[in-house]
């Protein structure tokens, strides 16, 4: 049994795929490549394949991480074999064997780095720099930023899932928020906590900016790009093993 | 906006709709061709949402057939869901294809796949969003030719004024002829009506504007006749004689979204030998043809290599009747040795079928589905569904023994000569099966789900003359069944919305006068009728009334054998004499043999060898 960890890029063409769609796409690509997938479960066996930390719908990414368990495969020919079975917008860029007892991806990743920018999209108005600066200052100087999240809770009595709203303070999940010049305009860089200890998404941050600035369609007309996933220790960002020190994500400026 | 900017704008707007993956294209095995380099550009339009349409085999066949030609290309479009419809109409984005995001109206040929009457409303939605004039008579020289194919074209009259032509029967051969003829016409710059006339010379092509419906003094339908002396009096469906060598899509486009049938599909046979008297497919797909198991094994390999699907469905109208089913299954399981699961849908309810199912579903023994259709042996004889009480019990015994705990049974209500005893028969049968499961002491709880749906009398079947039962009668029968089933926890009764079947009956046997009703219903807000959350019969009743027509009259109409029918000028190959004989035999409770027996029921099909 081999455990292979890989990094991949997800381009514009596939940004509207859900996490499950992506899993299905990868699964069938591995089958077409005739790689010996290992399965879990007796009644309805599922491949031991994990596309990693889910990417929000509509977001592109330079650097995602996934894992797959295979029976036996020549690691040197792994990349060309799988990439010729994948759509162009989904490209596996690096792959290496990791020890079976290596810590799970979820335990090696606690933050995601996003870039958000606005371009001229068919007569929609982009936010002005002044607008954004004010909003950013307000957010950074707050100790509490509350957003409402919808959750579906199981009601045991009625055996139904019920929708309810819950207020969450996302300020602790916001590590870094900056505005930078980009092309003819500017972009927002965000480092946000992610994972099972709580987190937030660029969409929530933008909802907050919309509320503060009074601009209503910021989310809809924004381009959002995930630059990478890291372990952030308060000072610097570390990619998961075995990719430490090897990562060179293309930012939007180079795209 | 220029085209590039428009494409980008559409693309970014997708973040505002549910399941945007329905509209993105770019799937695995998609074919994208340079528009500058081909002569004939076709849109294949499916009037249902993406997840449903992508599972349609006919659409896949045509897609590959057209795209394999160097001089042609085919792109797809599906009916947008209501949120997308709202978005594109607000933003003024004309309906676009998935392959190139080009406006549908820029293609010279637009072919709709008409598989179900309750999709008709979506044709109106799509024509409207495509900005193509709704009626054929309003279309100019630059506008696309709107064509229709599929099972509904055996009575397309309610849609006739919206379409420029219909193609009857199987598309594999006739489509090639249409593309060739169309190419010649456009090269010699023929006018729209001359092109249609040229196309009407191809067997299977029906141009409704060259025909007129007559009505008698009492405003009763009195036959359809040509108004152009060059077109044939009757149009005959096309049949692929050599199924073995017919084109088949072995690298189908794979949706990213989970489609309703998320698996590889291999058509092992076409046509059904059984001759159930209510079944339209059973009549219109005659004669029965098979592919050889050797060829199917080769096709299966290619299909799996190109897709990576983990399940292969071996489809036909009656898979148990495929004569080479044993060697086929043996060949396939040797070939794939556990890498691929197989399924055999549409099985006959007998012990042999269960044995096959046992061999097929080795790992994944989920549920078994059968369609006894009627609750008593008497009524099964009436509809020519020839399975006996004993066969049903033996099949179920075998299924219980093999470990199936979830079984689905399909029944119909409103069949000719049906009485309340027949309905009680449904309950008695199910309850006996549940009882025998209990008494044999099998472990685990049995789940028997029973689905009932009202019969829809369909054109070109022995029941085409029959009225549908009234809505009140459907509701009475359903509640009677619910009363029978209410006490038994092992039995789970589900029923098909009677109101939907009612509209289906009206649309499937309608004439050309009904056409404006569709536009009216659309204007009154009818959308996606096949989805019970959108369906509203009142909207349709109002639309009928606005044209001085009655939905009830169409659904409940009983025709006489000697009367002309709105579809009498369209031929399936089965003789009307045969349908009349079958209709009469049904009332005498007499069964007719299937094509598998030595005796022949005598449908008189032109292409049948016997």
Please give a structural write-up.
The complex is a heterodimer of chains A (255) and B (610). Chain A is 20% helix and 37% strand. Chain A is built from six helices and 13 strands. In chain A, the strands form three sheets. In chain A, strands 1, 4, 5, 6, 7, 10, 11, 12 and 13 form a nine-stranded mixed β-sheet that branches. The model of chain A has no long low-confidence stretch (mean pLDDT 87). Chain B contains 20 helices and 19 strands. In chain B, the strands form six sheets. Chain B has a six-stranded mixed β-sheet, covered by helices on one side. In chain B, strand 7 and strand 8 (221-226) form a beta hairpin. The radius of gyration of chain B is 24 Å and the shape is globular. The chains are: A alpha+beta (255), B alpha/beta (610). The A-B interface holds A 13-14, 16-18, 20-21, 24-25, 27-32, 43-45, 57-58, 85, 87, 89, 121-122, 219-221 and B 1, 5, 8-9, 12, 14-16, 20-21, 24, 26-28, 254, 256-258, 262, 305-310, 363-364.
Q: How is this structure best summarized?
A:
The complex is a heterodimer of chains A (255) and B (610). With 255 residues, chain A is of the alpha+beta class. Chain A has six helices and 13 strands.
Task: Output the number of helix runs of chain B.
Answer: 20
The helicity of chain A comes to 10-25%
Mean pLDDT of chain B: 94
Rg of chain B, rounded, reads 24 Å
User: What general outline of chain B do the C-alpha atoms trace?
Assistant: globular
- Oligomeric state of shown chains: heterodimer
Give the N-terminus to C-terminus distance of chain B in angstroms: 62 Å
Provide the residue-averaged pLDDT of chain A.
87
Give the helix proportion of chain B (percent range). Answer: 25-40%
Count of distinct strands of chain A: 13
């Amino acid at each position: 049994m081999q455990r292979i960890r890989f990094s991949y890029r997800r381009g514009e063409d596939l940004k509207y795929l859900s996490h499950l769609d992506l899993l299905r796409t990868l699964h069938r690509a591995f089958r077409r490549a005739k790689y010996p997938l290992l399965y879990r479960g007796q009644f309805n066996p599922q491949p031991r394949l994990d596309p990693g930390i889910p990417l929000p719908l509509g977001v592109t990414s330079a650097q995602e991480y996934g894992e797959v368990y295979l029976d036996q495969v020549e690691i040197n020919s792994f990349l060309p074999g799988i990439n010729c079975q994948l759509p162009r917008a989904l490209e596996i860029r690096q792959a290496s064997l990791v020890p079976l007892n290596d810590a799970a991806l979820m335990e090696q990743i606690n933050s995601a780095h996003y870039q958000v920018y606005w371009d001229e999209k068919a007569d929609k108005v982009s936010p002005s720099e002044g607008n954004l600066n004010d909003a950013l200052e307000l957010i950074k100087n707050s100790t509490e930023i509350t957003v409402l999240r919808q959750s579906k809770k199981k009601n045991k009595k009625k055996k139904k899932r019920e929708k309810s709203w819950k207020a969450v303070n996302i300020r602790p999940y916001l590590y870094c928020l900056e505005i930078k010049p980009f092309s003819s305009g500017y972009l927002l860089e965000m480092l946000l906590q992610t994972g099972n200890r709580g987190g937030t998404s660029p969409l929530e941050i933008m909802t907050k900016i919309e509320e503060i600035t009074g601009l209503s369609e910021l989310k809809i007309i924004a381009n959002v790009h995930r630059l990478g996933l890291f372990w952030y220790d308060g000072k610097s960002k570390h990619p998961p093993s075995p990719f430490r020190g090897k990562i060179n994500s293309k930012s939007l400026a180079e795209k | 906006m220029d085209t590039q900017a428009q494409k980008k704008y559409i693309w970014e707007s997708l973040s505002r709709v549910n399941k945007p993956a329905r509209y993105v294209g770019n799937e695995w095995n998609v074919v994208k061709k340079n528009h500058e380099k081909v002569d004939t550009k076709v849109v294949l339009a499916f009037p249902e949402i993406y997840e449903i349409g992508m599972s349609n085999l006919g659409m896949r066949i045509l897609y590959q057939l057209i795209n394999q030609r160097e001089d042609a290309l085919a792109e797809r479009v599906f009916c947008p869901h209501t949120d997308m419809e709202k978005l594109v109409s607000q933003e003024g984005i004309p309906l676009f294809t998935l392959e190139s995001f080009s406006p549908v109206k820029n293609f010279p040929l637009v072919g709709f796949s008409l598989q179900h009457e309750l999709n008709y409303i979506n044709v109106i939605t799509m024509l409207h969003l495509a900005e193509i004039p709704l009626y054929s008579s309003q279309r100019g020289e630059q506008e696309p030719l709107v064509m229709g194919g599929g099972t509904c074209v055996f009575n397309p009259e309610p849609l006739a004024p919206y379409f420029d032509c219909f193609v009857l029967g199987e598309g594999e051969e006739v489509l090639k002829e249409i593309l060739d003829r169309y190419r010649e016409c456009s090269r010699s710059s023929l006018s729209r009506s001359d092109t249609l006339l040229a196309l009407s010379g191809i067997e299977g092509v029906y141009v409704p504007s060259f025909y007129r419906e007559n009505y008698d003094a009492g405003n009763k339908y009195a036959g359809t006749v040509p108004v152009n002396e060059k077109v044939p009096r009757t149009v005959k469906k096309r049949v692929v004689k050599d199924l073995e060598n017919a084109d088949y899509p072995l690298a189908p486009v794979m949706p990213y979204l989970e489609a309703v049938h998320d698996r590889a599909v291999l058509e092992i046979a076409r046509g059904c030998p059984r001759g159930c008297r209510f079944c339209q497919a059973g009549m219109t797909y005659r004669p029965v043809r098979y592919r050889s198991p050797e060829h199917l094994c080769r096709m299966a390999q290619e299909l799996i290599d190109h897709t990576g699907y983990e399940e292969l469905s071996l489809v036909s109208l009656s898979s148990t009747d495929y004569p080479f089913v044993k060697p086929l299954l043996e060949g396939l399981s040797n070939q794939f040795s556990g890498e691929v699961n197989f399924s055999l849908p549409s099985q006959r309810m007998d012990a042999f079928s269960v044995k096959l199912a046992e061999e097929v579903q080795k790992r994944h023994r989920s549920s078994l589905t059968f369609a006894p259709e009627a609750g008593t042996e008497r009524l099964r004889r009436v509809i020519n569904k020839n399975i006996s009480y004993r066969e049903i019990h033996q099949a179920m015994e075998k299924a219980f023994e093999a470990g199936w705990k979830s079984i689905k049974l399909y029944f119909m209500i409103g069949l000719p000569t049906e009485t309340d005893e027949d309905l009680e028969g449904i309950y008695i049968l199910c309850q006996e099966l549940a009882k025998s499961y209990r008494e044999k002491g099998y472990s685990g709880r049995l789940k028997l789900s029973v689905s009932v749906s009202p019969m829809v009398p369909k054109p070109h079947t022995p029941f085409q003359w029959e009225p549908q039962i009234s809505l009140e009668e459907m509701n009475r029968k359903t509640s009677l069944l619910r009363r029978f089933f209410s006490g038994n926890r092992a039995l789970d009764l589900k029923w098909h919305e009677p109101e939907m079947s009612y509209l289906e009956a009206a649309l499937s046997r309608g004439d050309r006068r009904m056409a404006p009703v569709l536009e009216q219903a659309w204007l009154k807000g009818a959308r996606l009728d096949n989805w019970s959350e959108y369906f509203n019969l009142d909207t349709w009743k109002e639309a009928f009334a606005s044209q001085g027509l009655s939905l009830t009259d169409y659904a409940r109409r009983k025709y006489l054998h000697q009367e002309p029918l709105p579809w009498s000028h369209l031929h399936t190959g089965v003789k009307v004499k045969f349908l009349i004989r079958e209709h009469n035999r049904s009332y005498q409770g007499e069964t007719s043999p299937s094509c598998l027996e030595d005796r022949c029921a005598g449908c008189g099909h032109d292409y049948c060898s016997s």
